[in-house]
Specification:
The protein is 35% helix and 19% strand. With 469 residues, the protein is α+β, with helices and mostly antiparallel strands. The radius of gyration is 24 Å and the shape is globular.
Amino acid sequence: MSADARANRAQAVTEPTMEKAVRPQRSRTNTANIDRTITHPGAVAINVQGAYIDDEDPPSPSSGPSLVAHHETKDIRLPNHKAVVSHIAVDIGGSLAKLVYFSRELNSPELGGRLNFVNFETDQIDSCLDFMKQLKVQQQRLNGSRPSELCIMATGGGAYKYYDKMKEVLGVEVLREDEMECLITGLDFFITEIPSEVFTYNETDPMHFAEARSDIYPYLLVNIGSGVSMIKVSGPTQFQRIGGTSLGGGTLWGLLSLLTGARTFDEMLGMADRGDNTEVDMLVGDIYGTDYTKIGLKSTTIASSFGKVFKMKKQAEQDAEDGGGLANGDREQAKEINGGPKVDRGLGGGFKGEDVSRSLLYAVSNNIGQIAYLQSEKHKLSNIYFGGSFIRGHRQTINTLSYAIKFWSQGEKKAYFLRHEGYLGSVGAFLKRQPRNWGRRNSFEEEMPFWSKGKEAEGVGGARTGAGI
Protein backbone atom coordinates (compact mmCIF):
# COMPACT_ATOMS: atom_id res chain seq x y z
CA MET A 1 0.00 0.00 0.00
CA SER A 2 1.33 3.44 -0.90
CA ALA A 3 2.13 6.14 1.66
CA ASP A 4 -0.86 8.15 0.50
CA ALA A 5 -3.12 5.14 0.88
CA ARG A 6 -1.87 4.51 4.40
CA ALA A 7 -2.25 8.16 5.27
CA ASN A 8 -5.87 8.33 4.22
CA ARG A 9 -8.77 6.49 5.78
CA ALA A 10 -12.44 6.45 4.78
CA GLN A 11 -15.50 4.48 5.72
CA ALA A 12 -18.54 3.29 3.69
CA VAL A 13 -22.03 2.00 4.57
CA THR A 14 -25.18 0.32 3.33
CA GLU A 15 -28.82 1.20 3.91
CA PRO A 16 -29.82 0.21 7.47
CA THR A 17 -33.08 -1.50 8.29
CA MET A 18 -35.70 -0.45 10.81
CA GLU A 19 -35.60 -3.93 12.30
CA LYS A 20 -32.08 -3.25 13.52
CA ALA A 21 -33.16 0.10 14.87
CA VAL A 22 -35.68 -1.43 17.25
CA ARG A 23 -33.33 -4.16 18.38
CA PRO A 24 -29.99 -2.41 18.95
CA GLN A 25 -27.10 -4.50 20.17
CA ARG A 26 -26.15 -3.21 23.61
CA SER A 27 -22.99 -5.11 24.40
CA ARG A 28 -20.20 -6.92 22.65
CA THR A 29 -18.20 -9.65 24.36
CA ASN A 30 -16.80 -11.64 21.44
CA THR A 31 -13.21 -10.53 20.76
CA ALA A 32 -13.62 -10.51 16.98
CA ASN A 33 -16.83 -8.47 17.23
CA ILE A 34 -15.21 -5.99 19.60
CA ASP A 35 -12.22 -5.50 17.32
CA ARG A 36 -14.48 -5.05 14.30
CA THR A 37 -16.81 -2.66 16.10
CA ILE A 38 -14.29 -0.26 17.61
CA THR A 39 -11.91 -0.19 14.65
CA HIS A 40 -14.73 0.37 12.13
CA PRO A 41 -16.88 3.10 13.69
CA GLY A 42 -20.05 2.12 11.86
CA ALA A 43 -22.71 3.83 9.82
CA VAL A 44 -25.17 6.24 11.39
CA ALA A 45 -28.49 6.95 9.70
CA ILE A 46 -29.74 10.34 10.87
CA ASN A 47 -33.29 11.69 10.52
CA VAL A 48 -35.89 13.40 12.70
CA GLN A 49 -37.43 10.04 13.60
CA GLY A 50 -34.24 8.62 15.09
CA ALA A 51 -30.74 7.41 14.35
CA TYR A 52 -28.99 4.06 14.53
CA ILE A 53 -25.77 2.40 13.46
CA ASP A 54 -25.62 -0.16 10.68
CA ASP A 55 -22.88 -2.76 11.13
CA GLU A 56 -23.35 -4.42 7.76
CA ASP A 57 -20.41 -4.35 5.39
CA PRO A 58 -21.36 -2.47 2.19
CA PRO A 59 -19.94 -2.92 -1.29
CA SER A 60 -16.89 -0.86 -2.09
CA PRO A 61 -17.91 2.70 -2.94
CA SER A 62 -17.96 3.36 -6.66
CA SER A 63 -18.22 7.12 -6.39
CA GLY A 64 -16.11 9.89 -4.94
CA PRO A 65 -12.70 11.31 -5.68
CA SER A 66 -10.42 9.26 -7.85
CA LEU A 67 -7.31 10.19 -5.92
CA VAL A 68 -5.65 7.43 -3.93
CA ALA A 69 -7.39 6.96 -0.59
CA HIS A 70 -7.88 4.00 1.70
CA HIS A 71 -11.61 3.38 2.07
CA GLU A 72 -12.67 1.51 5.16
CA THR A 73 -16.11 -0.08 5.32
CA LYS A 74 -18.40 2.46 6.92
CA ASP A 75 -19.66 6.02 6.54
CA ILE A 76 -22.41 7.99 8.23
CA ARG A 77 -25.53 7.33 6.20
CA LEU A 78 -28.11 10.10 5.72
CA PRO A 79 -30.96 8.30 3.92
CA ASN A 80 -33.55 11.03 4.44
CA HIS A 81 -31.49 14.10 3.75
CA LYS A 82 -32.82 15.92 0.66
CA ALA A 83 -31.26 19.38 0.80
CA VAL A 84 -28.17 20.29 -1.20
CA VAL A 85 -24.95 20.14 0.83
CA SER A 86 -22.27 22.38 -0.60
CA HIS A 87 -19.64 22.30 2.12
CA ILE A 88 -16.98 19.98 3.46
CA ALA A 89 -15.26 20.12 6.83
CA VAL A 90 -11.67 19.55 7.83
CA ASP A 91 -10.02 19.44 11.24
CA ILE A 92 -6.28 19.97 10.81
CA GLY A 93 -4.26 19.01 13.86
CA GLY A 94 -0.56 18.71 14.53
CA SER A 95 -0.40 15.09 13.35
CA LEU A 96 -3.55 14.38 11.32
CA ALA A 97 -6.00 16.23 9.11
CA LYS A 98 -9.50 14.75 9.43
CA LEU A 99 -11.91 15.36 6.55
CA VAL A 100 -15.71 14.93 6.41
CA TYR A 101 -17.76 15.38 3.23
CA PHE A 102 -21.24 14.52 1.96
CA SER A 103 -22.03 12.55 -1.19
CA ARG A 104 -25.29 11.52 -2.83
CA GLU A 105 -26.31 7.91 -3.38
CA LEU A 106 -25.63 7.77 -7.11
CA ASN A 107 -27.46 5.28 -9.33
CA SER A 108 -29.86 4.53 -6.50
CA PRO A 109 -33.65 5.10 -6.28
CA GLU A 110 -33.19 5.92 -2.60
CA LEU A 111 -32.95 9.52 -1.44
CA GLY A 112 -30.21 10.79 0.77
CA GLY A 113 -26.51 10.17 0.84
CA ARG A 114 -23.65 9.64 3.21
CA LEU A 115 -20.95 11.40 5.18
CA ASN A 116 -17.51 10.16 4.17
CA PHE A 117 -14.50 10.17 6.49
CA VAL A 118 -10.88 10.45 5.36
CA ASN A 119 -7.73 11.36 7.25
CA PHE A 120 -4.27 12.43 6.14
CA GLU A 121 -1.02 12.88 7.97
CA THR A 122 -0.66 16.63 8.36
CA ASP A 123 2.81 16.61 6.83
CA GLN A 124 1.03 15.40 3.66
CA ILE A 125 -1.29 18.40 3.62
CA ASP A 126 -0.73 18.79 -0.12
CA SER A 127 -2.34 15.38 -0.67
CA CYS A 128 -5.26 16.47 1.50
CA LEU A 129 -5.70 19.64 -0.55
CA ASP A 130 -5.51 17.64 -3.80
CA PHE A 131 -8.25 15.40 -2.44
CA MET A 132 -10.40 18.44 -1.58
CA LYS A 133 -9.72 19.92 -5.02
CA GLN A 134 -11.01 16.73 -6.61
CA LEU A 135 -14.11 16.98 -4.42
CA LYS A 136 -14.67 20.48 -5.77
CA VAL A 137 -14.52 19.20 -9.35
CA GLN A 138 -17.02 16.44 -8.56
CA GLN A 139 -19.25 18.62 -6.40
CA GLN A 140 -22.22 18.74 -8.79
CA ARG A 141 -22.25 15.00 -9.38
CA LEU A 142 -21.78 14.19 -5.70
CA ASN A 143 -24.11 16.75 -4.14
CA GLY A 144 -26.13 18.47 -6.85
CA SER A 145 -24.43 21.85 -6.40
CA ARG A 146 -22.02 23.85 -8.53
CA PRO A 147 -18.26 23.69 -7.80
CA SER A 148 -18.25 27.45 -7.23
CA GLU A 149 -20.68 26.97 -4.33
CA LEU A 150 -18.32 24.75 -2.35
CA CYS A 151 -17.38 26.06 1.09
CA ILE A 152 -14.68 24.72 3.40
CA MET A 153 -15.45 24.61 7.13
CA ALA A 154 -12.03 24.42 8.76
CA THR A 155 -11.03 23.96 12.39
CA GLY A 156 -7.94 23.02 14.37
CA GLY A 157 -4.60 24.80 14.38
CA GLY A 158 -4.12 24.04 10.70
CA ALA A 159 -7.21 26.08 9.85
CA TYR A 160 -5.04 29.11 10.59
CA LYS A 161 -1.65 27.75 9.55
CA TYR A 162 -2.88 26.62 6.13
CA TYR A 163 -5.69 29.16 5.64
CA ASP A 164 -3.99 31.09 2.82
CA LYS A 165 -2.84 27.90 1.15
CA MET A 166 -6.36 26.42 1.19
CA LYS A 167 -7.84 29.55 -0.37
CA GLU A 168 -5.11 29.69 -3.02
CA VAL A 169 -5.25 26.01 -4.01
CA LEU A 170 -9.02 25.52 -3.79
CA GLY A 171 -10.26 28.96 -4.80
CA VAL A 172 -13.30 28.73 -2.52
CA GLU A 173 -14.57 30.33 0.66
CA VAL A 174 -12.85 29.03 3.79
CA LEU A 175 -14.61 29.59 7.11
CA ARG A 176 -12.54 29.03 10.24
CA GLU A 177 -14.34 27.65 13.28
CA ASP A 178 -13.12 27.57 16.87
CA GLU A 179 -11.53 24.22 17.67
CA MET A 180 -13.00 23.77 21.15
CA GLU A 181 -16.50 24.74 20.02
CA CYS A 182 -16.33 22.19 17.21
CA LEU A 183 -15.16 19.44 19.55
CA ILE A 184 -18.07 20.07 21.91
CA THR A 185 -20.59 20.37 19.06
CA GLY A 186 -19.43 17.09 17.54
CA LEU A 187 -19.36 15.23 20.85
CA ASP A 188 -22.75 16.56 21.96
CA PHE A 189 -24.23 15.39 18.68
CA PHE A 190 -22.89 11.85 19.04
CA ILE A 191 -23.89 11.57 22.71
CA THR A 192 -27.44 12.85 22.27
CA GLU A 193 -28.33 11.60 18.80
CA ILE A 194 -26.62 8.32 18.00
CA PRO A 195 -27.44 4.99 19.68
CA SER A 196 -24.59 2.45 19.83
CA GLU A 197 -22.01 5.21 19.39
CA VAL A 198 -20.83 5.81 22.97
CA PHE A 199 -19.58 2.85 24.99
CA THR A 200 -17.82 1.83 28.18
CA TYR A 201 -15.08 -0.77 28.29
CA ASN A 202 -13.67 -3.14 30.89
CA GLU A 203 -12.33 -6.66 31.07
CA THR A 204 -15.54 -8.27 32.35
CA ASP A 205 -17.90 -6.38 29.99
CA PRO A 206 -15.58 -5.38 27.14
CA MET A 207 -17.96 -3.18 25.16
CA HIS A 208 -21.23 -1.92 26.57
CA PHE A 209 -23.13 0.76 24.66
CA ALA A 210 -24.59 3.71 26.53
CA GLU A 211 -28.07 4.97 25.69
CA ALA A 212 -28.29 8.14 23.62
CA ARG A 213 -29.61 10.80 26.00
CA SER A 214 -30.07 14.54 26.37
CA ASP A 215 -29.22 15.05 30.09
CA ILE A 216 -25.48 14.94 29.56
CA TYR A 217 -24.08 17.97 31.40
CA PRO A 218 -21.71 18.51 33.06
CA TYR A 219 -18.95 16.27 31.76
CA LEU A 220 -15.22 16.21 31.08
CA LEU A 221 -13.91 15.85 27.52
CA VAL A 222 -10.36 14.51 27.26
CA ASN A 223 -9.31 15.13 23.67
CA ILE A 224 -6.10 13.25 22.85
CA GLY A 225 -4.38 14.36 19.69
CA SER A 226 -0.74 15.37 19.35
CA GLY A 227 -1.16 16.86 22.82
CA VAL A 228 -4.02 16.54 25.29
CA SER A 229 -6.73 19.06 26.18
CA MET A 230 -9.16 18.56 29.05
CA ILE A 231 -12.38 20.54 28.78
CA LYS A 232 -15.13 20.97 31.35
CA VAL A 233 -18.46 21.17 29.51
CA SER A 234 -21.40 22.64 31.45
CA GLY A 235 -23.78 23.23 28.53
CA PRO A 236 -24.00 23.43 24.71
CA THR A 237 -22.06 26.71 24.66
CA GLN A 238 -20.56 26.63 28.15
CA PHE A 239 -17.13 25.08 28.33
CA GLN A 240 -13.70 25.78 29.77
CA ARG A 241 -10.30 24.23 29.11
CA ILE A 242 -9.22 23.27 32.61
CA GLY A 243 -5.97 21.51 31.86
CA GLY A 244 -4.06 19.11 29.68
CA THR A 245 -0.62 17.67 29.05
CA SER A 246 1.99 17.87 26.32
CA LEU A 247 2.50 14.10 26.60
CA GLY A 248 -0.01 12.83 24.06
CA GLY A 249 -0.21 11.07 20.72
CA GLY A 250 2.61 13.15 19.28
CA THR A 251 4.85 12.01 22.15
CA LEU A 252 4.19 8.35 21.45
CA TRP A 253 4.53 8.84 17.71
CA GLY A 254 7.75 10.82 18.03
CA LEU A 255 9.53 8.57 20.52
CA LEU A 256 8.59 5.35 18.75
CA SER A 257 9.77 6.77 15.43
CA LEU A 258 13.15 7.24 17.11
CA LEU A 259 13.19 3.91 18.94
CA THR A 260 11.65 1.55 16.37
CA GLY A 261 11.49 1.07 12.62
CA ALA A 262 7.78 1.90 12.49
CA ARG A 263 6.81 4.55 9.94
CA THR A 264 3.13 5.16 10.75
CA PHE A 265 1.06 5.38 13.90
CA ASP A 266 -0.92 2.28 12.92
CA GLU A 267 2.32 0.33 12.57
CA MET A 268 3.31 1.46 16.06
CA LEU A 269 -0.02 0.31 17.49
CA GLY A 270 0.45 -3.02 15.72
CA MET A 271 3.87 -3.42 17.31
CA ALA A 272 2.36 -2.63 20.72
CA ASP A 273 -0.20 -5.40 20.17
CA ARG A 274 2.62 -7.91 19.71
CA GLY A 275 4.81 -6.62 22.54
CA ASP A 276 5.36 -7.60 26.16
CA ASN A 277 5.89 -4.56 28.37
CA THR A 278 7.12 -6.68 31.29
CA GLU A 279 10.41 -7.06 29.43
CA VAL A 280 11.15 -3.37 29.95
CA ASP A 281 8.79 -2.19 32.72
CA MET A 282 9.51 -2.76 36.41
CA LEU A 283 6.46 -4.27 38.11
CA VAL A 284 5.38 -4.34 41.73
CA GLY A 285 6.17 -8.06 41.69
CA ASP A 286 9.74 -7.33 40.61
CA ILE A 287 10.20 -5.30 43.77
CA TYR A 288 8.13 -7.18 46.35
CA GLY A 289 8.04 -10.62 44.79
CA THR A 290 4.25 -10.63 45.26
CA ASP A 291 1.23 -8.33 45.51
CA TYR A 292 1.40 -5.30 47.79
CA THR A 293 -2.06 -5.95 49.16
CA LYS A 294 -1.91 -3.39 51.95
CA ILE A 295 -2.18 -0.53 49.46
CA GLY A 296 -4.12 -2.46 46.80
CA LEU A 297 -1.37 -3.05 44.24
CA LYS A 298 -1.23 -6.29 42.27
CA SER A 299 2.11 -7.85 41.44
CA THR A 300 1.41 -7.06 37.76
CA THR A 301 0.98 -3.31 38.39
CA ILE A 302 3.61 -1.19 36.65
CA ALA A 303 5.82 0.38 39.32
CA SER A 304 8.20 2.08 36.88
CA SER A 305 7.80 2.45 33.13
CA PHE A 306 11.06 1.40 31.42
CA GLY A 307 12.37 0.61 34.93
CA LYS A 308 14.27 -2.50 33.81
CA VAL A 309 16.02 -0.83 30.91
CA PHE A 310 18.93 0.82 32.71
CA LYS A 311 19.89 -2.28 34.69
CA MET A 312 19.61 -4.62 31.71
CA LYS A 313 21.39 -2.22 29.37
CA LYS A 314 24.19 -1.71 31.87
CA GLN A 315 24.57 -5.47 32.27
CA ALA A 316 24.68 -5.94 28.50
CA GLU A 317 27.40 -3.30 28.19
CA GLN A 318 29.39 -4.91 31.00
CA ASP A 319 29.12 -8.33 29.36
CA ALA A 320 30.30 -6.86 26.06
CA GLU A 321 33.26 -5.14 27.70
CA ASP A 322 34.22 -8.28 29.61
CA GLY A 323 34.13 -10.17 26.35
CA GLY A 324 36.31 -7.59 24.64
CA GLY A 325 33.54 -6.40 22.37
CA LEU A 326 31.79 -3.09 21.81
CA ALA A 327 28.24 -2.65 23.02
CA ASN A 328 25.15 -1.04 21.51
CA GLY A 329 26.45 -0.66 17.99
CA ASP A 330 29.57 1.33 18.92
CA ARG A 331 31.59 -0.48 16.24
CA GLU A 332 29.08 0.49 13.54
CA GLN A 333 28.94 4.03 14.91
CA ALA A 334 32.70 4.30 14.62
CA LYS A 335 32.49 3.24 10.98
CA GLU A 336 29.87 5.92 10.34
CA ILE A 337 32.04 8.61 11.92
CA ASN A 338 34.92 7.58 9.65
CA GLY A 339 32.78 8.05 6.57
CA GLY A 340 31.22 4.62 6.24
CA PRO A 341 27.57 3.95 5.43
CA LYS A 342 24.95 4.40 8.13
CA VAL A 343 23.75 1.18 9.70
CA ASP A 344 20.30 0.50 11.13
CA ARG A 345 21.32 -0.73 14.58
CA GLY A 346 17.84 -1.23 16.01
CA LEU A 347 17.42 -1.03 19.77
CA GLY A 348 20.38 -1.37 22.10
CA GLY A 349 20.59 -3.85 24.97
CA GLY A 350 18.62 -6.52 23.13
CA PHE A 351 15.25 -4.80 23.60
CA LYS A 352 12.52 -5.52 21.09
CA GLY A 353 10.69 -2.69 19.39
CA GLU A 354 7.38 -4.41 20.12
CA ASP A 355 8.07 -4.47 23.88
CA VAL A 356 9.17 -0.84 23.91
CA SER A 357 6.06 0.15 21.93
CA ARG A 358 3.73 -1.52 24.41
CA SER A 359 5.56 -0.04 27.40
CA LEU A 360 5.45 3.49 26.00
CA LEU A 361 1.78 3.15 25.03
CA TYR A 362 0.97 2.16 28.61
CA ALA A 363 3.09 4.99 30.02
CA VAL A 364 1.40 7.69 27.94
CA SER A 365 -2.11 6.26 28.42
CA ASN A 366 -1.74 5.79 32.18
CA ASN A 367 -0.43 9.32 32.55
CA ILE A 368 -3.39 10.75 30.63
CA GLY A 369 -5.82 8.63 32.62
CA GLN A 370 -4.47 9.78 35.98
CA ILE A 371 -4.46 13.47 35.01
CA ALA A 372 -8.01 13.10 33.70
CA TYR A 373 -9.09 11.60 37.02
CA LEU A 374 -7.45 14.41 39.01
CA GLN A 375 -9.16 17.07 36.87
CA SER A 376 -12.53 15.33 37.18
CA GLU A 377 -12.09 15.11 40.95
CA LYS A 378 -11.10 18.75 41.26
CA HIS A 379 -14.11 19.93 39.23
CA LYS A 380 -16.56 17.32 40.58
CA LEU A 381 -17.27 15.65 37.23
CA SER A 382 -18.42 12.03 37.15
CA ASN A 383 -18.58 11.38 33.39
CA ILE A 384 -15.37 11.46 31.36
CA TYR A 385 -15.43 11.21 27.54
CA PHE A 386 -12.24 10.33 25.70
CA GLY A 387 -11.87 11.49 22.10
CA GLY A 388 -9.16 12.22 19.57
CA SER A 389 -7.17 10.35 16.96
CA PHE A 390 -4.68 8.94 19.49
CA ILE A 391 -7.20 6.29 20.55
CA ARG A 392 -7.81 4.95 17.02
CA GLY A 393 -10.20 2.27 18.32
CA HIS A 394 -7.19 0.54 19.87
CA ARG A 395 -8.28 -1.88 22.60
CA GLN A 396 -5.09 -1.65 24.68
CA THR A 397 -5.37 2.13 24.79
CA ILE A 398 -9.09 2.04 25.61
CA ASN A 399 -8.63 -0.58 28.32
CA THR A 400 -5.73 1.32 29.91
CA LEU A 401 -7.62 4.62 30.05
CA SER A 402 -10.76 2.91 31.36
CA TYR A 403 -8.84 0.99 34.03
CA ALA A 404 -7.01 4.13 35.17
CA ILE A 405 -10.28 6.01 35.75
CA LYS A 406 -11.85 3.04 37.53
CA PHE A 407 -8.77 2.43 39.69
CA TRP A 408 -8.19 6.00 40.84
CA SER A 409 -11.87 6.78 41.39
CA GLN A 410 -12.58 3.39 42.97
CA GLY A 411 -15.36 2.90 40.44
CA GLU A 412 -17.14 6.18 41.19
CA LYS A 413 -16.42 7.76 37.78
CA LYS A 414 -17.10 6.43 34.29
CA ALA A 415 -14.88 6.55 31.24
CA TYR A 416 -16.74 6.73 27.93
CA PHE A 417 -15.40 6.18 24.41
CA LEU A 418 -16.80 6.76 20.92
CA ARG A 419 -16.69 4.79 17.72
CA HIS A 420 -16.08 8.00 15.73
CA GLU A 421 -13.71 9.45 18.35
CA GLY A 422 -11.23 10.91 15.86
CA TYR A 423 -13.80 13.03 14.01
CA LEU A 424 -15.40 15.10 16.78
CA GLY A 425 -13.88 18.36 15.54
CA SER A 426 -14.56 17.80 11.85
CA VAL A 427 -18.15 16.68 12.48
CA GLY A 428 -18.62 19.71 14.74
CA ALA A 429 -17.32 21.99 11.99
CA PHE A 430 -19.62 20.29 9.49
CA LEU A 431 -22.60 20.87 11.77
CA LYS A 432 -21.78 24.56 12.04
CA ARG A 433 -23.30 24.86 8.57
CA GLN A 434 -25.97 22.22 8.89
CA PRO A 435 -29.29 21.85 7.04
CA ARG A 436 -32.75 22.03 8.58
CA ASN A 437 -34.17 19.08 10.49
CA TRP A 438 -30.70 17.67 11.09
CA GLY A 439 -31.35 15.97 14.40
CA ARG A 440 -33.85 15.33 17.15
CA ARG A 441 -32.71 17.02 20.34
CA ASN A 442 -31.62 20.50 21.42
CA SER A 443 -27.92 19.72 21.35
CA PHE A 444 -26.24 22.81 19.97
CA GLU A 445 -28.25 26.03 20.41
CA GLU A 446 -28.98 27.84 23.65
CA GLU A 447 -32.64 28.25 22.68
CA MET A 448 -33.74 26.30 19.63
CA PRO A 449 -31.45 24.44 17.18
CA PHE A 450 -31.59 25.00 13.44
CA TRP A 451 -33.05 21.58 12.77
CA SER A 452 -36.07 22.08 15.09
CA LYS A 453 -37.11 25.56 13.96
CA GLY A 454 -39.31 24.30 11.16
CA LYS A 455 -40.21 27.01 8.67
CA GLU A 456 -38.25 29.58 10.69
CA ALA A 457 -35.06 27.82 9.60
CA GLU A 458 -35.76 28.72 5.99
CA GLY A 459 -35.04 32.35 6.86
CA VAL A 460 -31.65 31.61 8.41
CA GLY A 461 -28.98 32.85 6.05
CA GLY A 462 -25.53 34.30 5.94
CA ALA A 463 -22.13 32.73 5.68
CA ARG A 464 -22.75 30.08 8.34
CA THR A 465 -26.11 28.56 7.50
CA GLY A 466 -27.51 29.82 4.17
CA ALA A 467 -30.57 28.18 2.63
CA GLY A 468 -28.61 26.56 -0.18
CA ILE A 469 -26.28 24.40 1.85
